Amino acid sequence: MPSHAEILASNSLLNDTTTPLISVFVGATSGIGKLTLQALVATGASTRIYLIGRPSSLERTQPFIDALHALNPRATIIWAEGEYSLLSETRRICDDILTKEARIDLLFLTAGYAPMFTERAETEEGIEITQSLSYYSRMLFVMKLLPALKAKGEAPGRVISVLGGGLESASGIALDDIDLKKPGNFSGPGMQKQNLGLNSVALDKLAEENPDVVFVHAWPGWVDTGNVHRGVKEGTVWSMFVKWFLAPLIGLVAIRDEVAAQRYLFEATSGYFGGGGVEWKGKAGVNVKGEEGRNGLFLVNYKAGCTPNSKVMEALREKARDKVWEHTVRVLEPYS
C-alpha cells in the first residue's frame, strides 16, 4: 500500500504530459469529486475539465469555478448542465461531450448519496433515485464515453467510481430483485450494499472487455462531504439523529479534506494502477484478478491501497455477473 509520502511524491511529478488532458467529473459540485477536481487544477497543468452539475447547482458552484480559473489560468473548466439522475439527460450530456472531444483521459464518478433513513423514491423514468445516481447513470456514462476513453493518448483512459470498492460480499447482490422493487426489500443500507456490488460486477465486466482502459472502484471511508444529510427526510427523528449525533461523529473521525484530495488525485494519475500516468517504481497495485502492474479493475480502499477481494469477485463473476449485466443492458438500452 502506498504511503502518504509516496502519494504526495507521485502527485508532485504531475505535469502537462502526465496530468489528464481532458477529464469529465460527474458529481463534483460537492464532496470528494470537488476536492479531487480542485487538486487536479492546483497542479498547474494545462487541462480541460467538464464539470457536470444539476441546473440548481450552478449558482453556488460558479464562485468555485471562478476560483479554479484564478488558481490555474491554464485550466479550462467547462460547466455541462444536466439532471444526471435521469438516463435521458445522461445520454444527452455524453452525446454533447462526444461532439467536442475525440479523446477523454479521465472519467470521475461520485454522484449519489446514501439513502440511510429514507423511503423508496423513483425518478420520472421509474428508477429508484439513489440507484440511478450510484449505478445506472454511472454505467451509462462509462458505456457512452468508452470510445473516447479508448482513443489513443499518452496513457490509458481511466474510470474512477467512488462508492464501496472492496466491500463486496459473495451474497451481497439480490439477483432475484436487482432494483429492490419487491415489497419489503428496499432499505437504505440494503440499497447501498446493492449498488456497491453492482458497481464492482459491472466494472469487472467492462474491464475484462476493455483491457486498454483502467477501472477503479474506490471506497472513500469516512470523509465529511455533508452528503449524510441528503439521506434523511427533514424534520424526522432520523434527521435529528444525523444532525446531533452522526454528523458530529463523522466530523471527529473523518479523513481531512486535503488528504482525501491527494489520494484521489493519485488514483486518477499514478502508474501504480495499471499502465501510464506518473511512473511508479515500487511494487505496483494488484487488480481483482491478482495481476500486478496490469490494467483491469482495481478495488481501492480509503488509503489508496488495493484490496483485490479476489475470492469474492471470482464468486460474483461466476454466479452474478451475467445476470447483472443482462439486466443492466436491458435498463440502459433505450438510452444507449
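(the above was protein one; protein two follows)
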Amino acid sequence: MLSSTAIPVFKLYGETQHWPTPDLLHCESIPERSRLHDWRIRPHRHADLVHILLISRGSVELELEGTSHHLESASVIIVPAMTIHGFRFSPDVDGHIITLAKPLADHLHGTLDNGRILKKAGFYRLASANSAARIATLVDQVDQEYRQPAAGRKQLLDVLARALTIELERLVVPAKASLKRLGPQRREKGQQHFDYFQKLIEKAYREQPSIEALAKEVGISSAHLNLLCRKIAGRSALELLHERLLLEAKRQLTYTNMTIAQVADSLGFSEPAYFTRFFKRNTQLAPREFRQRQLGSE
C-alpha cells in the first residue's frame, strides 16, 4: 500500500515535467496521452492544476479520493487541485482533458455568481442531450483554438473557458436552486455564512465539533445553518461535517499504513468501535473491508 507521501504530485496529466505551454490552459485528447500509459494513469495529484475531462465515447474507471466509479459516455469529471485521482480508460475511449492553471481557475470562479464547480471533485453524467451537446461544442472549440496560433487566441480561450465553466456550473444548479428564492442581499450573506462554515469544517473536522458550536462561530443559529446547508448543498450541516470526516478516513485507509485504531484516533473518535460503526453506516463496509477492496483494485 502506498503511504500518503508516496502519492506523486504531477505537473501535468501523468507527467513530472514542467508546464508545457505559456497559456494558463492546456488541452489534449484523452487517447493522446493515455495510450502511452496503456490506458492507465495511476493515482496522483496536482498542487495547482484543475482537470476537466469530457468522456464522449468509451468508459473509464475513475478513482477519486480512494473511491472507484465506473463512468460511461457522456460524462464530465472535475478534479480540483490536490485531489487524489487516477484513471483506467477503455481502449475505445474518446474525449478531451482540459487542464487549468490555478490562477485561471481562480479567475473563472471570480467571474461567476457563487460558482464552486471547479473547487469540488465530482463527476456528472450528461443525461440531457442539449447539455451534452453544448459542453461538447465548447470543448471542441477550446481544442481547436488551443492547437493553432491566431489573432486574439488568448482572449478567445479565456472566453471559451468561462463559457465552459458556466455550463459546468449549471450541472449542479438544481442543488442550489432554492437559494434563489432569497433576495440578493440575503442570498449573498447566506453564501458567505456557508463558505465560512465550510472553512471551519476544514479547519476543525478532526475534532468533531458540534454543529451548535460551529453555528455560533459563524454567527447564526444551528437551525439557520442547517437551512442554508440544505438550500445550497442539499445536505444538513452534520452531513457535510460527516462527509469530510469520511473523505479523510477513506484517504487514510487507502493511502497509508495506519492501523484502524490509528485512523480512528486521528479523526477524533474515542474508540475504534465508534469509528467502525460510523464508517459502516456511511459506506456499508467496515474499514477493514474497504481497505481490502482498495488493495484488490491495485
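Reviewer note on protein two: The chain has a mean pLDDT of 84.
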